[in-house]
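Subject: two folds for Thursday's group meeting

Dear M.,

Sorry for the delay on this. The cluster queue was jammed most of the week, so I only got both jobs back this morning. I'm pasting them in the order they finished. Each block is the input sequence followed by the predicted structure tokens. Could you check whether the formatting survives your parser before we put anything on slides? The first protein is the one we discussed after the seminar.
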Amino acid sequence: MRASAKWTACTTSLCPDRTAAAPRPTSTSGECARLLAEEARAFRPAPVQAASNHEAALPALLAARAVGLPFVYEVRGLWEYTTASKIAGWEGTERFALERALETLVAREADLVFTLTAAPADELVLRGVDRARIRLAPNAIDPDSLRPVARDAALAASRASRKAPSSPGMWVP
């Protein structure tokens, strides 16, 4: 069985066939890290990269360190605060403190950290992450990079010959 097929047992979002409706797996971060390290040894990616939260990132960090590769952490949000916005008193719980500590640990140990906005970057700096290792990677594009192009008559004819359906949101020549 390929290692990637085994990832379904991991608690990480790296499991390609895990759905939101699936029961929560019980594997440890160490087991997931071992499986990820196997894949990293086989494929030798330039860095090992993981996105929020620590459940995905900690095994990836451990795997990267095990095989001597750089680790990049993409912080898409501070999930402990997302939970706190939904559950009154969450910020005073041990679970909040644990999740905050694990997020901080992964970010501090990462070779490079991406955040979507300056707010989480600032928060991570307050937690001890070196600002020089943080980059912004916003969920957006530069609208100036979108340039109109001339209509491609051959492409339009090709699409028309396939009788593409006309409905809202579909491109039709």
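Second protein, same layout:
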Amino acid sequence: MDQHIEQSISEQIHRFISNHESVNREQAWIADHLDDIKLKKIISTLSIVSLHTLSALKEHSKTGIELATELNVTRGGITRAAKSLTGHELVDTFKKSNDQKKLYYRLLDNGKKIADVHDQMHQMIDSELHTKIDSKYSNDELKLVNQFLTDMNDFQENLW
């Protein structure tokens, strides 16, 4: 492969990762689309893991281990996010009467409001992305891009 192309690919991947990790843009978009002033102020204190935890709890209550597995983060990351979310009264915890060992997290009303807006943001991003790439690339090109991204994710996951 041409060294110039390899360098360009590497630069584009690093650029993508830097943009992808920008929590401030997500927080700003969500805050702009919330009506509740109190919730707008909370948003700037929430991590990406916290936002994704809220969305993951929309369907039903889950344990920290279930959340960590679903979101592909550490249990410690879920514990930190849950502490913040419970402190802001966006989620609460409980134990089932038939299993006092497991601690479950459940979404509260304000948490659901944030989760709904967070999910709307992702739906909008996905829609815009599909519109842009579907009009620009052929199906065969998209298959190649998909394989490339899969290979990159596999590489990153197995790096350490």
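Two things I noticed about the second structure. Residues 46 and 84 are 7 Å apart (CA to CA). The two ends are 26 Å apart (CA to CA).

Cheers,
T.
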